[in-house]
Design goal:
alpha+beta; 3-stranded antiparallel beta sheet; 3 helices; 3 strands; about 20% helix; about 20% strand
């Protein structure tokens, strides 16, 4: 109901199309196939007893800037890319 009321105030009377990224999610594109939850990782990784287990993340900044982080879980050594 509210959407119809807001559409009356637009100059152009055209249909608002969804953002293209939303279409990818609906079709399954951009998703990791056979993803495993982080809660299902082995206990040896959780207690940080064995070196060599890395954890990574991608942080998106403004516009097209990104920072990748890699952390070695035993020594907590951090690499920023």
């Amino acid at each position: 109901m509210l959407k119809k009321e807001l559409l009356e105030h637009f100059r152009a009377r055209r249909t608002i199309l969804p953002f293209p990224a939303c279409q990818h999610e609906a079709s399954g594109q951009g998703q990791i196939k056979d993803a495993v939850s982080i809660s299902e990782r082995p206990a040896s990784v959780e207690d940080r007893a064995v070196p060599g287990h890395w954890e990574g993340d991608l942080i998106g900044g403004s516009r097209t800037s990104y920072v990748a982080t890699l952390v070695e879980r035993h020594s907590r050594y951090v690499m920023l890319i």
